[in-house]
Amino acid sequence: MSHLILEKPIRPGVALVRLNRPESLNALNRALVAELTDTLVSLDADPEIRAIVITGNERAFAAGADIKEMAGDSAIDMLILDQFQRWDQIKRLKKPLIAAVSGYALGGGCELAMLCDIIIASETAQFGQPEIKIGVIPGAGGTQRLTRAIGKSRAMEYILTGRFFSAKQAEAWGLVSRVVPPELYLEEALNLAAEIASMPPLAVQLAKQSVNKVYELSLEEGLHFERKNFYLLFASEDQKEGMRAFMEKRTPQWKGK
Predict the structure, then answer these.
(1) N-terminal to C-terminal alpha carbon distance within the chain
(2) CA 165, CA 50: separation in Å to the nearest integer?
(3) Which CATH number goes with the domain that contains 103?
(4) 141 with 161, same domain?
(5) Are residues 38 and 112 in the same domain?
(6) Confidence at 69, pLDDT banded by 50, 70, 90
(7) In three state form, how does the secondary structure of the chain look?
């Protein structure tokens, strides 16, 4: 792979995907996004992998889209390319996706982090949707996911001004799960991924699915969806094993079945 570095397993059941365009602060060109999507879809189908961490480097998670690549495109070009359908593939991943963010997470980089299920941030992380400064708006979910995460008024302020906000602000507003020193952000994300990977895989996937439905369904519909997934897990071997191990006071052995 020319734009990514893949390490698997870096912990039991965990894959690490590094964005690797350091010369451009990991700007998300079309080749990188295609490579990233194909890699994530492949990991999602890999029975040995149960959680995935995405990171960049200490200076930048991803500093945005590759502007040079799209500057000359027309509206018709963008419609035909339909580049954001790749993001829809990432959204449909069944396995948990954790972003380990240090440095810049701007524009498409912020949108990629928000597309993940959990964000662990370095104290140096800076988030933002500065697309307004180049005459456009976020196009990969920024207006929707940022608003859901931090509220309308804050999202409107930062999207309309293009200003950045810090890791501590992101944590206080609920965008990121936790903020740690720069030397620990990746280790923290990998440890969290390993902890999740040690849980029963089917239950993890259905829990992720249920939580994500909060943004799509009413409370009544969401409760019905959660209940259906809860009942469904009683058809799994892992449910039988988990409850038997609890009663026998031993460690369960998950099969993902």
Answers:
(1) 32
(2) 32
(3) 3.90.226.10
(4) yes
(5) yes
(6) confident
(7) CCCEEEEEEEECCEEEEEECCHHHCCCECHHHHHHHHHHHHHHHCCCCCCEEEEECCCCEEECCECHHHHCCCCHHHHHHHCCCHHHHHHHCCCCCEEEEECCEEECHHHHHHHHCCEEEEECCCEEECHHHHHCCCCCCCHHHHHHHHHCHHHHHHHHHHCCEEEHHHHHHCCCCCEEECCCCHHHHHHHHHHHHHCCCHHHHHHHHHHHHHHHCCCHHHHHHHHHHHHHHHHHCHHHHHHHHHHHHCCCCCCCCC
Residues 210 and 191 occupy one common structural domain? no
| pLDDT tens profile 99-158 | 999 999 999 999 999 999 999 999 999 999 999 999 999 988 999 999 999 999 999 999
Is 175 in the same domain as 55?
yes
Q: What are the catalytic residues? A: 65, 108, 111, 131
In a domain, 122, yes or no: yes
CATH of the domain at 234: 1.10.12.10
Closest CA to 205 of 49, 35, 7: 49
Q: How many domains does the chain have?
A: 2
- pLDDT tens-digit readout, 201-218: 999 999 999 999 998 898
- Residue 138 structure tokens: 């976020």
Return d(Cα 174, Cα 154) in angstroms, integer.
12
Q: Which domain holds residue 78?
A: 4-197
Residue-wise pLDDT for 24-68, tens only, equals 999 999 999 999 999 999 999 999 999 999 999 999 999 988 777
pTM of the model: 0.92
